[in-house]
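Submission sheet (multi-component)
Chains listed below:
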Amino acid sequence: MSPVLHIAANELRLMARARVAQLAIALVVILSAVAALTAISQGRESQEIRSRFQAQADREFDGQPARHPHRMVHYGHFVFRPLPALAGFDPGVDAFTGSTLFLEGHRQNSANFGDVRQSSLLVRFGQLTPAFVIQALGPLVLIFLGFGAIARERDSGLLRLHFTQGVRAGQVVLGKAAALSVVAGLILAPALGALAWLTLVGGAAPVAALTLAAGYAAYLLVWVLATTSISALAPSSRTALASLVAAWALSAILAPRLATDIALLAAPQPTRLETDIAIQRDLKEIGDSHNPDDPYFNAFRASVLKTYGVARVEDLPVNYRGLIAMEGERLTSSLFERYAERQFADQRRQSGLALALGLVSPTLAVRSLSMAASGTDLEGHRRFLRQAEAYRYAIVQRLNRLQVERLTFSDDSKRNSDPEAGRRVRIDPGAWRQTPDFIYRPASTTEALGAATPGLLLLGGWLALAGGLAWAASRRLERAGA
Amino acid sequence: MSRLGQELRLFLRQRLAVPTLALLALLAAVSVAAGVTEIRRQAETIARIQPLQAAEEAVVAAWVSRDGDAGNAAYYTFHATWDRPSALAFAALGQRDVAPYVLRVRALALESQIHEGETYNAELALPGRFDWAFVLTFLAPLILIVLLHDLISGEREAGRLQALQAAGGRAGLWTRRAGLRAGLVFVAVAAPFVAGAAVSGAQAVEVLGVLAVAGLYLLFWTLVCLGVGALGRSSVANGAVLAATWVVLTLVLPALAHIAINSANPVRQGVELTLAQREAVHAGWDKPKDATLAAFFKVHPEWRDTPPVTSGFHWKWYYAFQHLGDLSVADPVRAYRRGLESRDAWTARVGLVLPAVGLQTTLHRMAGTDLAAQLAYQDRIRAFHERLRRFYYPYIFNETPFREGDFAKAPRWAEGD
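Outcome: structure written.
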C-alpha cells in the first residue's frame, strides 16, 4: 500500500473508533437527510399551493361576467411565482420575496406574502436546508474531526516516527486530507441524494445539479485542505482548533451579516412609497389626463384626429376613451419600467458588493453559486417581476383595445346616464377566456450557469489558495521534521 | 479587591485575552454604529416623506377641487402612515428591514393595501443584519468559550493545578477567575450598547432591562463553560464540546424549531383572503345597487336616510362595496392574524428552552421590532383607515362638495395613533 493510502486508512480507522467522531458524523448526516427531506416536501407543497392558487386565479378571471373592459383592467389578475425544482435543495431568497403579485391597470403592486413577514424572528436563525447544512455545519464537522489530524501526532511524537520510516511530509498531509475527504463525502452524500432525486423525479436540469454538486464538493475540499494545513502549521492542536473555529465563524457567521450592512450602507435604496410618489410626479410632468387643457393630451388628440382624418373625437371610427386609456397605460408602464430597472441595477450593485466579501469568505462564494444554480437567487425573482410586468402590460392593453374596438364613444360616454348604453358597454365574457394565461419562463440552464460563474470563480480561487496552503504546510513540516 | 486586581493582571498577561476582548468590543461597537446609522436613516426617511406627501396632495387638491367631487378626493388622495423606530431599535433591527415602516393608504378597501410589501434586496435580507443583538446572541458566547474553556484544564496542563488547589483558593478562586472573565466579556459587549442607547435617547429603565437580559444570557454560557470544564477533560476536548454545544443551541435547534413551528401553523389565509376580497369587491359592480347599499346601511345606519342612488354610477355605492369587500373577509383576516400570532407565541415558548431564541425574542420585543410590533403597526393603520373612511363618508353620502380647504381637515397620522 502506498504511504498516502496507508496514512488515510489509519486515520479513518482511528475516526471510526472515536465516539465523538461517530457522533458528529452521524449528527450531520442525519441533519442533512432531515433537511433534504423537509426541503423537498416543503418545496413540493408550496409549489402545489402556488399552482392551485394560480389555477384558481386563472379560472376566476375567465369566469367573470359581461363587463366594461375597464372593469376588468381594475379586476386585474394574480400571478404566482413557480418554485424551481432545485428550490428543494436551496430555497435561496424564496422565503424573503413575496410569491404572489397582483396585476392591475396603471399600478404596480409589490409581491406579497413572503414567508419572512409571516414568520417569527426564528427565520433569521437560518433555514434548515441541505444547502445550509453543508454551508454552515459541514465545515465545522470537518474542523472537529480534522484539527488534530497532524497536530496530535506531532504532540505525541508519532510524526517523527513516520519521518524516520521514510514517509515524506507531503504524503502525511495528503493522506490526512484524503481521510478527511471521505468524511466530506459522507456529509455531502444526503445532499447528493437529494440532488439526484430532484433531477430524476423533480425534473431539475442535470447540468445545474452537477454544478451544485461540484460547487459544494469544492467548498468542502477547501475546508478539508485548510483544516489539514492548519493542523500541520499550528504549534499545538489547541491553537489549531481555535484558529479554525475562528476562521469558520468569520466565514459562515460574521461575513454574511457584515456583507449585508456594508452593501446597504454603500448603496441604499429608496422606499417603495418614495418611488410611488416619484413615478406620479414624473407622470404629471409628461401629461395630466385630468386636465382638459393639458398640452400633451391635446397633442395626442390632434394626432389621432389627423390620422383618421376627422375633426371631432365623436366622428372617430374607434372609441377615443379607449385610446386615451391605452396612451395612459403606455406612459405609466414606461415609467414603471424605468424605475424598476433602476431599482434592479441598485440591487445588483448591492449584491455585487456583498459577493466581493466572498474574497474573505468561501461561504459567501458557495452561497452565491448555490442560489444561482438553483434558480432561487434574486435574479430569479427579478425575472419573475419583469415577466409579470410584461404580462400585466399585455393584458391591460388587450383589454383597453377591446374598449377601443368593441365600444362606441357615445355609449362609453353615457354609460352611467343611459341604462341601455350601460348595457351595451358590457362586452361578452368570451373575451376574458381568450386572454392568455401567465406562463413563467424560468432561467435557461445557460443563464443559471452564467449567474453561478462569479461564485464558481471565487471558489476556484479558494481551492487554489487552500491547495497552496497545503503545499506550504507540507514544506514546513518537511523542514521541521528533518 | 487586591486579589481580583492580581487576577486581572494575570489574565491580561495571557496571549489571547486582550485581542479576544478587543475583538468583541470592536464588533459590538461596529454593530451599534451600524444599527444607529440604520435607525437614523429610517427616521430621515419618515421625515422626508411628509413634505413629499404634502406636495402630492396639493396636486390632487388642485384638480379635484375644481368640481369638488368628494369621491375623487377620497379615491386619489393617499395618506401616509409610518412606524417610527423605538429608542432601542438600533440594537435589534428585527423585521424592520423587510416590513414596511412607511405605507400609504386610501379610503378604498383596505385589505388590498395593508399587505403591501417594501422594496428591499432579498439576498441581503437573507443572512440578516449585523446588529448588536446578533453580536450578543452569536458571537459573545464564542468569545466566552475561548476565554473559559481552559480555565481549569489549562492550569492542569501547565502543571499548576495542585499548587493552586493547595494554596487554599478552592471554589473562591475559580469563581473569581470565571467571574472576572465573564465580567470583562459583559463590559466589552455592553459598553458600546450603552453608548448607542445614550445617543438614541433610550430610557435608563430600558437600558437596564436589556443589560439584565444580556447578563443572564452570558451567565448561562459562563455556567455551561464551567460545567463542561468541571468534567475534567483536556482543554482541546472542552473547546470542541463547547463549540459543538454552541452550534446545536444557536444554529441547529432554532432552525429545527422554525421548521416545526411553521409547518404546525400554516398561514395560507393571506393569499386566500386577498383573492376572496378581490372577488367580493369586484362582484359589487354586478350586484344590484340596492342590495349592496342595504348591506352597507346595516353597518353604517347613519347614512340610511341620505338621497337614494338612481344613476348608473354613484360614489356612495362604490365606497359601500369597497367596505363590504373588506367586511366579507373579516374571518380569514382574523384567522390569518391568529396563525401569525400563534407562530410568535410558539417561538416565545421555544425561547424558554433555547437561550439564544429567548434572548432574541426578548430583545426584539423590548426594541419593538418583532412580528408583534409589525401587527401592532397594522392595527394602527386599520384604525387610521377607519377614521379616513368616516372623514370622507359625510361628503360622499350627503353629496357635499369637497373644496380645497377640506383637504387640510382630513385625519393625519399621529404618533399616538
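Remark: DSSP finds 19 helices and three strands in chain A.
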